[in-house]
Amino acid sequence: MLEEIEKKANYCLSCKIKPCQVGCPLQNDTTGFIKYLKENKIHEAYDLLSETTVLQAVCGRICPHDKQCQGSCIRGVSQKQVNIGDMEAYVGDMAIENDWKLKKVAEEKDKKIAVVGGGPTGLTCAANLAKNGYKVTIYEKHGVLGGIMNHGIPAFRLDKELLQKVIDKIIDLGIEVKLNAELGKDYSLEDLQKEYDAVYLGFGANISSQMGIPGEDLEGVFGGNELLENNSHPDYTGKTVVVSGGGNVAMDTARTVKKLGAERVIVIYRRSRAEMPAEKKEIDEAMEEGVEFVFQNNILRISGDKKVEKIECVKTELVQKEGETRKSPVNIEGSNYFIDIDYIMMAVGSKPEEKLLEKLNLDLDKRGRIAVDADNMTSKKGVFAGGDLAGAKGTVAWASRSGRDSANSIIKYLEKN
Description:
By secondary structure, this protein is α/β, with parallel strands linked by helices. It has 3 domains: 2-97, Orthogonal Bundle (Fumarate Reductase Iron-sulfur Protein, Chain B, domain 2); 112-205 and 352-416, 3-Layer(bba) Sandwich (FAD/NAD(P)-binding domain); 208-349, FAD/NAD(P)-binding domain (3-Layer(bba) Sandwich). Helices cover 34% and strands 17% of the residues. It is built from 15 helices and 16 strands. The strands form 4 sheets. Strands 3-2-1-4-16 form a 5-stranded parallel beta sheet, with helices on both faces. α3 runs antiparallel to α4 (42-49), α7 packs parallel to α15 and α11 (224-230) crosses α12 (248-259). The protein is globular and about 70 Å long. The N and C termini lie far apart (50 Å). 46% of the residues are buried. The mean pLDDT is 94.
């Protein structure tokens, strides 16, 4: 394994302009840690990566590398890209195997922060605060930490035992954890404000969006996010299942349903394959596993007598509209057709839980997310928010970046107050 990693490291040109670092949401010093790998200084590579990320073993496996760091690799212009993901995962794995600790960089302080949500943004925020000497408590509604990494990304993409070891390394910084503690039910935001010097809201936006078409209230219509989070599935044996959407949640949903015994799984996406937001690797693997794809088609309605029986679809053409950078799918008149199905899974985006947001009494933006300023502070002083709850891009790396940035903002705020 080490010999293979060294070969991948030596393939890197060690560019001075570091386009791969620019492409990384976390701004990891990519060429820097790869240089250490070339010199067989793996611990030093881990320490360097730890300055910007605490999820090396995770991000190295599940990040959309082709659209981030590797997608910016100079070699990729005419040759194969440098495989940054595999090297980052290797460094993370070695840190776990050798029990290398995350290092604290400041003295202990008497300020306390509550972090709501134990997903990538909450864990990263908590880790960076703890590294800087602050007392941190994570509140998590489930019985285990990890958020979308545990409840959204299937085990065939991210081993849960490995994930737990990554989380344990973070908690070992001295972070207190309160599991099965749900905001709005077991405690309120006001309770946290009274007990802590600052609060970070990072519980995600995991309620599946709907398409706004007739029939979405029929039995047999599910949200992909909820299915993955709760791992509560109907019996798919011998069934035909449609997944609406083109992102990684759609891929994870489709692949999970197929592995659970569905006879046919059909992903329907309004645009072309080239425009699918899902990672190429995930699309390829879904296809290899027998998932069918129907591109440039739109679902118009869901029909059935109480339960889903069929969907009406229409073909689309991509049209460049004035003032828009991305082509829009337009329905082709007269191309309508029907597909008999048993279930349909919505994976067309997600949003925060509206009832919970109402209880928080915070200002929202036009998309219904929590509104924050340039420092990620909400409309309530000392209350910060990040991740997709506050509009960050929906990947683990971007959620982590939001958590890290928010931790820095919280530190600045506490130093002044």
